[in-house]
Amino acid sequence: MTRFTEWLESKWRKDPRPELARAYLLTFSTAEGRLVLQDWLDEIYCQTCPINDPQALAEHNGQRKFVQRILEAIDQAGEPGKYETKQEESWQMQQS
Question: Per the structure, how many domains does the chain have?
Answer without folding.
Answer: 1
